[in-house]
Amino acid sequence: MRIALAQLDLFVGDVDGNARRIIEAAALARDRERADIVVFPELALSGYPPEDLLFHAGMRRRVAEGLARAREAIQGIAAYIGYPEYVEGRIYNSAALVRDGVVLANHRKQCLPNYKVFDEKRYFAPGTEATVVDFDGQRLGLLVCEDIWEPEPVRATVDAGAELLLVANASPYELRKQIEREMIARDRVREVARPLVYTNLVGGQDELVFDGHSFVIDASGEIVARAPAFTESIFAVEFRADGRRLVPVRGEIAPYQSDEASVYGALVLGVRDYVEKHRFPGVIIGLSGGVDSALTLAIAVDALGAERVQAVLMPSRYTAPMSIEDATEQARRQGVKHSLISIEGMFETTLGALRQEFAGAAPDTTEENIQSRCRGVLLMAISNRTGRMLLTTGNKSEMAVGYATLYGDMAGGFAPIKDCSKLLVYRLARYRNSLGAIIPERVLTRAPSAELRPDQRDTDSLPPYQVLDPILEAFIEEDLSVEQIVARGFDRATVTRILDMVKRNEYKRRQAPPGVRVSSRAFGRDWRYPITSGYRLKT
Fold first, then answer.
1. What contacts 326, CB < 8 A, 6 or more positions away?
2. What's the rounded Cα separation, in Å, for the pair 44 and 459?
3. Is 337 a residue of the active site?
């Protein structure tokens, strides 16, 4: 028996397009890979996650039509296809095994995740039965994603006679998630001594990126095949009978990536799919000469190509000459169209219009924010004129403490590095330079500055990032208390100050554009802090 794994980049809501891609992939698996079965990702027909589209009457009709079309069109090979199943007022996260116009078996996902980015209990009813099907003399157990994260569904499937486990998945990327997936899958396999086929989704969907990395495990828990990350792949693994046991033949095993390569790949794929699936002709970036915009430009060019990226330099009276030099040099190295538009005239005119209102008041962050908003006006005007989407360049450290300007540098359609701490930004920039030196070295070594007032440095307003980022990670990703963070060796006053800044700036984050999730907890769908709250941190 040969089983193909089809990790595809599918499109949420495009049921017709997804059905067409499923039919094409099944034919390819049959003809090129000589497969008997092809396993598709979870909810392949609707795309994942379909969210409240599931409640739309039109979605139900399209899913029924798409599944019927795939069932009839897929001939000479069986296909395990994920889809939302509508039954008597309920919706199930299901997957059907079809061949030659016949549904051989249908499995309803039993374990519904309701944590982090998942809220499946809002949409789906849980299945209650194990699903095992006789297929050409072999007993196949059918499962969907979270079903293998708990022992019971796998045990029940094997107790029902399964000799091989087929699992459809839509497991989103976060740093080192593949190691966790394979650890869980190995645990289940070793508990029941059955081989397992794991097909994962690939592609970007709003804040989420799915990294693929589909794999096959033999009955002892050893990985015998693994697809590469962040790319579509259709490949087959042969299973040979050894008595009643099915033994997979070892195939290609794509290696793990480094942390930096992995995160960078997720950012590139997330930007590419967001732009492509929204059909933007390209993107605009405000290029400052700092590391954040430098990394964002690198990601955009790698995702879309230089011809679809436009950079705009917008100096003010506080912009250092080396910022203009370094930004211009990077744009030149990457072959990106770039222009220079001074904001000095806009800034002066705005201050003049407000002179009477501001009479007697000393300059403060108000004037800094005006500069940022002048840049936002220019960038959005170019975006409107060209149809290209504006990418924002803020990082997670800044978004956490509110070191960003509403309607200024936060203006835009997508935020590629929104979930990357400042320290990670530097690591990613150096990683990208290791592939080809596109970011000038001075960008990576100079002290970070917003350049909104004379001789400004980020450390004027914030602790050094070597202190700030670990405190933020402990609070945001680990949910640690003040006492627990202080116990790690941080100053209590610094910790309470930083956490208070995080709390006070929730209103800004609610108005920020979406961005790629790469950590275990990003600002967005898995961060749901109230804007208005009487909760006080213990000082």
1. 289, 294, 440, 442, 443
2. 47
3. no
The whole-chain average pLDDT of the chain stands at 95
Of the candidates 109, 277, 418, 422, the residue annotated as catalytic is 109
Interatomic CA distance for residues 400 and 418, integer angstroms? 10
Rounded mean pLDDT, 277-305: 97
Distances (CA, A) of 451 to 268, 289, 290: 28, 10, 10
Q: Where are the beta strands (DSSP E) in 277-422?
A: 283-286, 309-313, 337-340, 389-391
Tell whether the torsion through CA atoms of 342, 346, 349 and 353 is positive or negative: negative
Catalytic residue among 33, 120, 145, 146, which? 145
CA 290, 296, 300, 303 torsion-angle sign: positive
User: What is the SS3 assignment for 426?
Assistant: helix
Pairing label, strands 138-144, 208-211: unpaired
Tell me, what amino acid is at 126?
Answer: P
pLDDT at 449: 83
Residues forming a β-bridge with 144: 168
Q: Encode pLDDT of 366-409 as tens digits.
A: 999 999 999 999 999 999 999 999 999 999 999 999 999 999 99
pLDDT value at position 173?
97
What does the CA dihedral 211, 176, 519, 331 come to, rounded to 10 degrees?
A: -60
- At position 155, the amino acid (one-letter code) is R
Work out whether strand 283-286 and strand 389-391 pair parallel, antiparallel, or are unpaired.
Answer: parallel
The answer to whether the predicted template modeling score (pTM) of the entire model surpasses 0.85 is yes
β-partners of residue 196 are 165, 217
Q: Could you tell me which residues are beta bridge partners of residue 90?
A: 87
List pLDDT tens digits, range 411-438: 999 999 999 999 999 999 999 999 999 9
- Give the whole-angstrom CA distance, residue 177 versus residue 200: 12
* Distance between first and last Cα of the chain: 64
Catalytic residue among 33, 42, 146, 174: 42
Cis peptide bond prior to 470, omega within 30° of 0:
no
Exposed/middle/buried for 453, CB within 10 Å: 0-12, 13-18, 19+? middle
Q: 3-state SS of 311-322?
A: EEECCCCCCCHH
Contact 269, 230 (CB under 8 A): yes
Query: Would you call 111 a catalytic residue per the annotation?
Result: no
